[in-house]
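Fold it.
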Amino acid sequence: MGKHRERTWHGRLIAAALGVTALAAATSVWTAQAGTTAGQPPTAVASAASHPERPAARKVAEEIVHASDKGPRGVNITIDDGPDPTWTPQVLRLLKENGVKATFCMVGTQARAYPDLVKAVVAGGHRLCDHTVSHDVTMDKKSEAYQAKEILDAERMITEASGGVHPQYYRAPGGAFTPYSRKLAASHGMRPLGWNVDTKDFEHPGADAIIATVRSEIANGPTILFHDAGGNRSQTLAALGRVLPWLREQGYVYGFPVR
């Protein structure tokens, strides 16, 4: 799993933090919020105190996972950066048509803005993954207090939007994991999640190029990275429509990342 830090334009949206509710009906919004949980830096205490009803999470392994629960022929489809009102419903339709379950790595403010889409993901039998509040690909350079806010606030936003379903994984934006962030996520029952195949669909290389990347790199491992937000995802949809049946034809079985 390599890092990708090209999506720095996300940072321009941080200034929208105070206007996320007003913008929710019109556009995608990725912003930073406050609050974490007990046992973290002092700024974290208030968030945990405001949600005392949460049951203790089952701690999972801190190591970044790539393996599939379906074994050596398993494939994990992961979808990052949403939910998005334009693209997520179309991705869900494609997955349903192909009988595929996926893991959706959601940005916290996106989940809060579009709770019906989060619920639709859960209703479709897919899994949730925490992708932080503001998609800061430089998180590994920031303080532990900052990392805690990003991870735990996103966990709360996603859980509330889903109607009580907690994320099972944590994926650092751009792969910006730290030992601290992995340990923190694991202590909240979220397995750190990497990837083996980066389709680079965010670069809009064309559906053929996205498909070629999957075909040439699937031997590297089972976890494939796509996106359903952050721009026009028509190429991603076109590629998924061809890749999903192709992988099955090659004898792969769709599963989820190991927890």
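The chain has one domain: 8-255.
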